[in-house]
Amino acid sequence: MAKSVGAGRLLGQTNWNTDFIVDQPYTSFKFFFTANSSDANAAYPVAAFMKFSDGSNLQVVNETMNPPIGRGRMFGPFPAIPGKQASQMNFKVGASNDPGALGFSYRISVQGCK
């Protein structure tokens, strides 16, 4: 999925969160991130969460990045949590307070592994 960082809002939705539905059980998950554009001086906060059917979640990524254009990054694999059913994988890429981060475009995906 290709997206770009937008400005934050006091009301309404930002473009920072993307949920990927998990439609079957997997033993682990990998998150993939690739920068399509970048400002050499900007920092991009990147977070990823495993969300579960009981409403709980687990943060598995929490980094501030300055990725080179076209260079991919894999996070994980993160093992499934025993006794929990994964329902969604969430990527959050935000602009924080860095004006250079606005308009940054990127591609993200999630892979479930058996």
What do you see in this structure?
There is one protein chain. The protein is mainly beta. The protein has a single domain (about 1-5, about 15-114), classed as Sandwich (Jelly Rolls). Helices cover about 0% and strands about 50% of the residues. It is built from no helices and 8 strands. It has strands at about 1-5, 15-20, 30-35, 45-50, 55-65, 70-80, 85-95, 105-114. The chain has a 4-stranded antiparallel sheet with strand order 1-8-3-6, with no helix packed on it. A 4-stranded antiparallel sheet has the order 2-7-4-5, with no helix packed on it. Strand 4 (about 45-50) and strand 5 (about 55-65) form a beta hairpin. The chain is elongated and about 45 Å long. It starts with a strand and ends with a strand. The model is unreliable at about 10-15 (pLDDT under 50).
Q: Topology, please?
A:
Elements (H helix, E strand, L loop, with lengths): L1 E3 L12 E5 L6 E8 L8 E9 L4 E9 L6 E8 L6 E8 L11 E9 L1
Radius of gyration: 14 Å
Low-confidence stretches: 8-13
Q: Beta fraction of the residues?
A: over 45%
Sheet bearing the most strands, described? 4 strands, antiparallel
